[in-house]
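Honest question from a wet-lab person: if I give you the sequences of every part of a complex, can you actually get the arrangement of the whole thing, not just the pieces? Trying it with mine:
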Amino acid sequence: MDSILLLAPVGSIIALLFAWYLIKTVMKEPEGTPEMSKISLAVRTGASAYLRRQYTGVGLFFAVMFVILLILALMGYLTLFVPFAFITGGFFSGLSGFIGMKVATSANARTANACRQGLNKGLRIAFNSGAVMGLVVVGLGLLDISFWFYFLSWFYTNVQSVVDEAQKYQLITSAMLTFGMGASSMALFARVGGGIFTKAADVGADLVGKVEAGIPEDDPRNPAVIADNVGDNVGDVAGMGADLYESYVGSIISSSALAVAAGLGLKGIIVPMTMAAIGVLSSIIGTFFVRSGEEASQSVLLRALRKGTYGTSIIIAILSFFIVWYSLGMEHIGVYFAILCGLVAGNLIGLTTEYYTSDTYKPTKDLAGTATTGAATIIIGGLSLGMLSTAIPVLIVGVAIIFSYFVSGGAGNPSEGLYGIGISAVGMLSTLGITLATDAYGPIADNAGGIAEMAGLPEEVRQRTDALDSLGNTTAATGKGFAIGSAALTALALIAAYTDEIGNIAEKTGSIFVLDTSITNPIVLVGLFVGGMLPFVFSSFTMSAVGRAAQGIVMEVRRQFRDIKGLMEGTAEPDYATCVDICTKSAQKEMILPALVAILAPILVGVILGVNGVVGMLAGALVSGFVMAIMMSNAGGAWDNAKKHIEAGNLGGKGSDNHKAAVVGDTVGDPFKDTSGPSINILIKLLSMVSIVFASFVLNYSIFK
Amino acid sequence: MDSILLLAPVGSIIALLFAWYLIKTVMKEPEGTPEMSKISLAVRTGASAYLRRQYTGVGLFFAVMFVILLILALMGYLTLFVPFAFITGGFFSGLSGFIGMKVATSANARTANACRQGLNKGLRIAFNSGAVMGLVVVGLGLLDISFWFYFLSWFYTNVQSVVDEAQKYQLITSAMLTFGMGASSMALFARVGGGIFTKAADVGADLVGKVEAGIPEDDPRNPAVIADNVGDNVGDVAGMGADLYESYVGSIISSSALAVAAGLGLKGIIVPMTMAAIGVLSSIIGTFFVRSGEEASQSVLLRALRKGTYGTSIIIAILSFFIVWYSLGMEHIGVYFAILCGLVAGNLIGLTTEYYTSDTYKPTKDLAGTATTGAATIIIGGLSLGMLSTAIPVLIVGVAIIFSYFVSGGAGNPSEGLYGIGISAVGMLSTLGITLATDAYGPIADNAGGIAEMAGLPEEVRQRTDALDSLGNTTAATGKGFAIGSAALTALALIAAYTDEIGNIAEKTGSIFVLDTSITNPIVLVGLFVGGMLPFVFSSFTMSAVGRAAQGIVMEVRRQFRDIKGLMEGTAEPDYATCVDICTKSAQKEMILPALVAILAPILVGVILGVNGVVGMLAGALVSGFVMAIMMSNAGGAWDNAKKHIEAGNLGGKGSDNHKAAVVGDTVGDPFKDTSGPSINILIKLLSMVSIVFASFVLNYSIFK
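Yes, you can. This is the full assembly:
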């Protein structure tokens, strides 16, 4: 085996060591006043309690799935590694979310405290904690992949020797594909559960606290305020980490499988794995670019963050040329351009998101203006903005698909073209270490602001945390662009990997079926319809779950205001833990139905319509899910910033009728952008993953062949 | 030629004669007080002014398109009949909308006047006027089709003799396909323009009249009240008529083309054409079932209407058996079951729509309950309801597609299966004469209510018109089910016809291209993405158009309240005409952009991605458009009825905070259900029509082949 592949495990270990070093640096900082420590502890305790409960529930699911997969393996529908690979995928994904959350909840008070000294100090702590999340995700992802790759290579060389190289790598990559399902399942639970938790707490706290009781945001008298802060961590940190973990892993394993299908063998596998390693190392270098002078303005800070991400992109763009050259040679140098294409596309989608959702640009400013005729018009305006904002990302992804396909030789060999699409997803995600850092630091700053408010720190501290937070909103837009764009390309690569996989299985088992995925095949069309509908039904479930959970919080907060004497006067403490507990319980309960949809749909469609129907379903869900995810994220983001635009003193400012209308928009946008929208990214990949794992079963038992 | 085909022209003439008879009956009735005549005249004048202006603008468009098509024809890309067929399609579609609108605006005062005597009398007039619309649509549609069929048969027999029968019918049906584009373009303008007009007037009148000035709905002091009533006629009557005209025509001509592709020749063409004729005659019989005793309760009236539609369905179900038996013989009797399948599917989708949008069922009742926590939660609830409501219609259409395909012999000969899908759309639309009647009478009753209010008729008259109106909402739900379901099946048949058409053209011209519409072809996938995005962008345009147009009305109404002395006191008359004029102008201006999207997208995608990309785009738009249209229609309908549920005295009733929240929902729902949602139905068919007309051009000039 080529020794350059060692870059993968080595890179992953360096990432984890550097993350450990960053944790040490962050933990060295003081937490500030005893009051601040106490609040931070309450948030940490709540978040841990939530994750413990979530992992218990999810553990049960994994146990059941493990048994099902084991039975399928014993019946010969899967290799025996699959159930175990499924478990490790879920475990590492959960672990990266857990570590990210731990660090984030330890960093919040420290960031607030650092902001007492200055903006740059605060930025360093928040950003370093975010970087831990980024590095842990890529480090553990790469570790999991490396482990299985080396283990399976050893197994198929020494235990069950497969002489034919092509066949050996086919066996390896096809087993590895399945652990993506573990990561995807975990991601779904983390995103949906975390998304429900955070928005139920947020909406519930606002509806009673801000609207009914008339106390400010993050006021310690609000019984839901700790739950709200916990939500930021379990939703925006742990949830997002698990989400991108699975995108990252999915893009690498699907391109590896496509490499084998394209006949590139080990050389083709080397590219995604070493690309990922290079991305990790470049991201570490990139983190050093992120610094600025004390008391720098916001635009200077933004430039510092941008320097980090763009710097990383440039380093990757240079190094990956040598990787492609070394492993595939000059005749496949087109693959390098697919990587560049992914890198550029990710950044462009991010810029589009920023354009549509930031109040420095026309769309969101205009949206704020629609508040002058009331809540109905700002809702219509936001939906309309979200729908319009789908056009450019679709065109960018369209160009990326065609470009990566043809530049990688798809005209001569379609499999090589599909490999190129997979590789462009890897290229897009190679900067994940640093983009996730610039994304995950936002909720930390948000939490720090909450702590500053609750601990009664001077106004200037809150101003600094707000500056960091609002900066985080801008960089989060870029992060969302990467999450959505990479989800589309990865899902596409997974669909291609699925059709290959079916061919392999059919060949091995002698199953008779006709692969006809043309659109004029009515089975494919019905699959398309069902797939196109799934993101709508899924979003319906997640949105109404937030509504129901928020309702529970509203009841509890009203009860506490009524029953606890002296609460409003500040002489008695609210019972924070009960609100955290209610959110936890509802999130657990409410995430079951959407998860079932995602896991059962491919199996049911497969059993009824067969593999052609499944391909149709996957394509339908990919297309409508991609568009819906962008629409919901951008509409939500724009409503949020339109409200902030008014709060900044425009159009009558806080408390005006315009502001009230904008708050309605923001509340509708909350589940859009933080629950339903991002969950769709996972849905479209999980559908493919489940389809791949159950491919053999479906081939045997489907009604239509 | 088989003489049974004569049924088509004969049926169409009977329908038109019967419509003429109904017009006479309606016009014999008195208009009531001079005040009522005056108001009715104002509405009629406004509607005529709008249609005149619309037809002028659309005429210009048709003139330009005619020249373009003529040039293409002279260059050899189209036969010379196409430009003329395009014109007649548009002309007859516009004419049916015009007649329907004329009758509706003459019937409103007469219905109000009849309601002074009793509910049944009012129902008869409103229903008969609605029936005129239904019969004119099917009559003119069938006339147009018959004319071209007989003319082209004569031409290819006597002028340019084509000996080979199969080739002759291929020439005929392929020329006929193109006049669908005329009908579709007209429908798009009518739906989008009418939809913008009606909702701009509605929203504008409510925002100033109800909310700011605090005067009741339909108050004569509101300057936008006439525009609002005009809107009902140009949007819900003329717009819907043109919409269903093109669905009806589209389903017949696409099945005829598919009949030829399936090798069934004339026998296969006979089925859709005579089915349509039978539908016309059965619908006429069905109208006689619609009567009830004087002062019957609402449920008795509903049963009367249902008797009409179900009775018609049963007659068609029986007669169509003989048609299939006679023309195709027992070996193709499966086609009969495809017809039945279409009939049943249409009714089932209608029932689903009713379930999700009527406040007698749980979903809308629950939605009304979400108003208790404010506007944001009822918006989230409505969107969630709309999204969830897509599941069952998708499954119904899915089952209908597979069933019709296989029962018609698709397993042996795919072309026969696709023909079966087309025929099931014809089956679904065969009851159009009567379903459109039960649908179109709603806005007439709505207008009658407005006139009763403005003319100060006794309260009981208004109660009766309200009863008719609310009954109309229920039957409109069924009508919408047919519109959406048939649009999906027709669009599907058109896509199949498109792929056939390409084959024919390529064969004739010797163009070299590879038809590969498999989903793993990246060109197809990119087409899918672009298509999936189109309904979103299109809806964004139509929704924001309503917002902008409503804004214009708000300004004008505010101006009149300010400038016209004595208006609020009722001593001075408002200037109704200016509001009508503003709506007219904005509707004309705002319909250009969405129309351009629908017409240019297939040409651009075709030129860049080639025919495979076009097929992908059509499928993507079909799937995401179908789901979006259901989502928007049902969410809008549910918000509307949730508001009515509260107004009926539940949850605090009119004027309560809950009611205010529900009004926000209803206002968001207005463009959803009456502008954007229904327009998508046309979009997905127009895209196919344009693709078919430009197929030859695209085959020659596309970048990707």
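Two things worth pointing out. Residues 3-701 of chain A form one domain. Chain A touches chain B through 79 residues (CB under 8 Å).
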